[in-house]
């Protein structure tokens, strides 16, 4: 998606350790118009599929997923919580994922009330690096008896291989910007097309 690539080039910052900071428009300050355009692009890509729910992980994926949902007939957005809380009651699906950004494992939890057998789920997230977070969401869907219809990603770090592995496993992954390489010394970012 050219618009997203241009924003990454103009406002993204490459940090040591394969970190791409895009917090000015994607995952701290949110550009809702950009999110809307991203949702329209995913709706075009996944047009032939039945989507009954969109699933993401808190917190950065929530805004993107909510904007995208408007393009899928206002389907509900469910987000996996990263910590147990008193608001989570009843039966739950739980797994553990490793976060590349936070460099730690954390639980992801979805109430069984909101992820059901027969749901057709679109997974949405802001970043895809090694694919561990998405694998956790897929595991939750499998446990619930829900079908993963596709995966929509804003920014994929193609050089980390998570997206390629998910595609090899048969998942329809639509990443709107795939970073092929990035250099913290020069700030140069190259995209896969």
TrEMBL record:
<comment type="pathway">
    <text>Purine metabolism; XMP biosynthesis via salvage pathway; XMP from xanthine: step 1/1.</text>
</comment>
<comment type="similarity">
    <text>Belongs to the purine/pyrimidine phosphoribosyltransferase family. Xpt subfamily.</text>
</comment>
<keyword id="KW-0808">Transferase</keyword>
<feature type="binding site">
    <location>
        <begin position="129"/>
        <end position="133"/>
    </location>
    <ligand>
        <name>5-phospho-alpha-D-ribose 1-diphosphate</name>
    </ligand>
</feature>
<dbReference type="InterPro" id="IPR010079">
    <property type="entry name" value="Xanthine_PRibTrfase"/>
</dbReference>
<comment type="function">
    <text>Converts the preformed base xanthine, a product of nucleic acid breakdown, to xanthosine 5'-monophosphate (XMP), so it can be reused for RNA or DNA synthesis.</text>
</comment>
<keyword id="KW-0328">Glycosyltransferase</keyword>
<dbReference type="GO" id="GO:0046110">
    <property type="term" value="P:xanthine metabolic process"/>
</dbReference>
<dbReference type="Pfam" id="PF00156">
    <property type="entry name" value="Pribosyltran"/>
</dbReference>
<dbReference type="GO" id="GO:0005737">
    <property type="term" value="C:cytoplasm"/>
</dbReference>
<dbReference type="InterPro" id="IPR050118">
    <property type="entry name" value="Pur/Pyrimidine_PRTase"/>
</dbReference>
<dbReference type="InterPro" id="IPR000836">
    <property type="entry name" value="PRTase_dom"/>
</dbReference>
<dbReference type="GO" id="GO:0006166">
    <property type="term" value="P:purine ribonucleoside salvage"/>
</dbReference>
<dbReference type="GO" id="GO:0000310">
    <property type="term" value="F:xanthine phosphoribosyltransferase activity"/>
</dbReference>
<feature type="domain" description="Phosphoribosyltransferase">
    <location>
        <begin position="32"/>
        <end position="155"/>
    </location>
</feature>
<comment type="subunit">
    <text>Homodimer.</text>
</comment>
<feature type="binding site">
    <location>
        <position position="27"/>
    </location>
    <ligand>
        <name>xanthine</name>
    </ligand>
</feature>
<protein>
    <recommendedName>
        <fullName>Xanthine phosphoribosyltransferase</fullName>
        <ecNumber>2.4.2.22</ecNumber>
    </recommendedName>
</protein>
<dbReference type="InterPro" id="IPR029057">
    <property type="entry name" value="PRTase-like"/>
</dbReference>
<dbReference type="GO" id="GO:0032265">
    <property type="term" value="P:XMP salvage"/>
</dbReference>
<keyword id="KW-0660">Purine salvage</keyword>
<feature type="binding site">
    <location>
        <position position="20"/>
    </location>
    <ligand>
        <name>xanthine</name>
    </ligand>
</feature>
<keyword id="KW-0963">Cytoplasm</keyword>
<feature type="binding site">
    <location>
        <position position="157"/>
    </location>
    <ligand>
        <name>xanthine</name>
    </ligand>
</feature>
């Amino acid at each position: 998606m050219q618009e997203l690539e241009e924003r990454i080039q103009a406002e993204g910052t490459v940090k040591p350790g394969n970190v791409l900071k895009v917090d000015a428009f994607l995952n701290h300050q949110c550009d809702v118009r950009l999110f809307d355009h991203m949702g329209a692009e995913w709706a075009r890509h996944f047009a032939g599929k039945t989507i009954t729910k969109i699933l993401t992980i808190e917190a950065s994926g929530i805004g993107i997923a909510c904007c995208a949902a408007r393009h899928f007939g206002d389907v509900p957005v469910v987000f996996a919580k990263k910590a147990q809380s008193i608001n989570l009651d009843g039966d739950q699906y739980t797994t553990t994922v490793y976060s590349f950004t936070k460099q730690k494992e954390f639980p992801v939890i979805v109430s069984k009330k909101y992820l059901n057998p027969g749901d057709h789920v679109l997974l949405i997230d802001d970043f895809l690096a090694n694919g561990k977070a998405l694998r956790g969401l897929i595991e939750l869907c499998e446990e619930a008896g829900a079908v993963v219809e596709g995966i929509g990603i804003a920014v994929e770090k193609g050089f980390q291989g998570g997206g390629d592995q998910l595609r090899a496993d048969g998942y329809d992954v639509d990443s709107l910007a795939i970073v092929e390489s990035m250099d913290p010394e020069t700030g140069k970012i190259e995209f896969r097309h």
